[in-house]
Amino acid sequence: MKIALVIEHFDATRGGAEHLTVWLAGQLADRGHEIHILCRDATPRRHSRHAASRGASHDAQTSAAAHGPAPAEPGDQFNANIHIHPISRVKMRTGPGFRLFGRRARAWRRQHPMDIVHSMSVAWAGDIYHPHAGVYARMQAQAIASRNTPGGAEFKRVMLKLSAKQRALLALERRAAAAPETGGAWKIICISPIMAQEFAQRFAVPPERIALLPNPNMVDDPCPPDPAMRAWFRGIYQLNESHRVALFVGHDFRRKGLEWAIRTVAATTSRWNLLVVGLGKVREYVQLAAGLGAEDRVKFIGPTAHMHEAYAAADALLLPTFYDSFGLVAVEAMAHGLPVISTEFLGAAYLVREHGAGTIVPSPRDVPAMAAALDQLPSDVPGRQRLATAGRLAAQQMTAADYANRLLQLYDNFLKTNPDPRRFSRF
């Protein structure tokens, strides 16, 4: 099968959609399919990642030095069935940039017949639209809700309305959700029940156009504990086995709730520590930790390509998110045996609940509930093993093989419904 995957940045180091797309391309190529990547670039953000690490804090510098060289270039790691096509060099931070990328993707498709176009990008929905980032209308609403004052919320509301980029994203999202004969996708892959509900309610997308396909567990399953790696990583940050360590992972610090993670750790009675993994401006969060008297317990690692080491060092994942369409990091954490403390706005919250693999609170601002959840986690080995087993069982449900099989069945159904690979009328 000739499959085109559409993504702005074919770079797994960016996390989320990019991580999934790189992984998916490899899975499909390993099964013998011919994969074409339509992207803006496929170059890891080495310079920006290292610059951010150097500028974040002393801890980030230590982490960057300890973790060694960055991953290899894409050409060194992909098999021969994967073909990368940079179709636009225009920056994707503007409305015109997204629209241009979409137009060039459609033009490329007209010149190169594919069996199916699977798009992760709102710039062009293709045949199957897979909005890993979530529903933009909901994301904007949660960006407003994350502000701490009515004035701040109103200012954010006005700025979103004035932003040409945000208006373009909403318009492109409406087009993707429209009927296929008017330019919308044949099928919309929703990665959580929350996302499926959003498309149904906001855009009146009928159930037959929605495919519920939660993200897979992309790490080794199960992930055995590694005491040596745990001790080594903790030692970098002057932590020993007696310290209780929570892990926060995410590049969008405000949306992922870093402020509330810091407040939660500061409020714990058993004096939890927090390892912060991600790319972002950290000054206000360093100041917040200092103001709460927790500056020695909050370690800013910066971004890392070695997440297995961070998971090994932690005792729990703390993610007070305002909006996460699914939350791959939660599945990865559970696969590594970590309980998850998060909110109702985590798409994978149902997995945590069903398997008793952590605690889900109503709001990211519910610091007392999250602090109590951390303090109540067992510190003894049998108790920790019980929670680790529950998390691993949850992650084992999301197998890579099952995910790939279900996706290929979706492709087959599309080809049975649309047998002509040269159809271009709706593009």
Q: Any overview of this molecule?
A:
This protein is an alpha/beta fold and 427 residues long. The strands form two sheets. The chain has a seven-stranded parallel sheet with strand order 3-2-1-4-5-6-7, sandwiched between helices. 47% of the residues are buried. The protein is globular, with a radius of gyration of 21 Å. The chain is built from 18 helices and 13 strands.
Entry keywords:
single chain; 427 residues; alpha/beta; seven-stranded parallel beta sheet; six-stranded parallel beta sheet; 18 helices; 13 strands
Proportion of beta-strand residues: 5-15%
Q: What percentage of residues falls in helices of 4 or more residues?
A: 40-55%
Q: Give the CA-CA distance, first to last residue.
A: 20 Å
Class by helix and strand content?
alpha/beta
Give a brief description:
This protein is of the alpha/beta class. It has helices spanning 16-30, 46-56, 58-67, 95-111, 136-145, 150-162, 164-177, 193-203, 227-236, 253-256, 258-267, 283-291, 307-313, 328-335, 349-355, 367-375, 381-396, 400-417, and strands at 2-6, 34-39, 82-86, 116-119, 128-129, 187-190, 210-212, 245-249, 273-277, 298-300, 316-319, 340-343, 358-361.
